Amino acid sequence: MVRISAIVAALSLAACSPVGAAQDAPPAPAAEAGASQTPAVDPDSGLTVIDVTIVSGSQQHSFVTELADTNEAQARGMMFRTEMGDDEGMLFPSYTPQARSFWMKNTPLPLDIIFVGPDSRISNIETGVPYSTDSVASQGPALAVFEIRGGLSEELGIAAGDLVEFVLPE
Questions:
Q1: Is residue 122 a contact partner of residue 115, using CB atoms and an 8 Å limit?
Q2: Is the Cβ–Cβ distance between 111 and 153 less than 8 Å?
Q3: Between the CA of residue 9 and those of 6, 20, 104, 123, 134, what are the distances in Å?
Q4: Minimal CA–CA distance to 102: which of 87, 118, 113, 89?
Q5: How far, CA to CA in Å, does 41 sit from each of 38, 48, 95, 97, 169?
Q6: Tell me: the pLDDT tens digits for 121-169?
Q7: Judging by DSSP bridges, how do beta strands 48-56 and 59-67 pair with one another?
Q8: Strand duo 88-98 + 40-41: pairing
Q9: 109, 113, 118, 148: which has the fewest Cβ within 10 Å?
């Protein structure tokens, strides 16, 4: 009975996060020459904030993005959040490109879950249904998963094949 209670408690914490164990924090890429600035931090979540740009044809869409780069941050994801701006997102980088799947348990916001392939291009976009425990998965290995407000990909014309640009801090 204790084991079942522990499993139920663990599952209740894994919302809008990778299904199964969270991934190890990825290694940071080498900093650009002369770049040694302290990254910005979101005042509410405490997560590092980076810029993510999606290049869709001749359009560029920029997002102020919370970086879920630890096991804890990836497990929490967008759980319990009630709002997300059109210029905001959350990025879940992978240590190495691998198949990824997410669910929306304890997540009240509809989200577009964008799977970024090893070539930094969108492999697929899935709809995250609020509070759903149904998994959505990458089509092949994913370098990262990027979440934005539900329906925004379609509104902006973001689609599979578009380039996703970001630099992880050191």
A1: yes
A2: no
A3: 5, 14, 16, 33, 18
A4: 113
A5: 9, 4, 21, 26, 12
A6: 999 999 999 999 999 999 999 999 999 999 999 999 999 999 999 999 9
A7: antiparallel
A8: unpaired
A9: 118
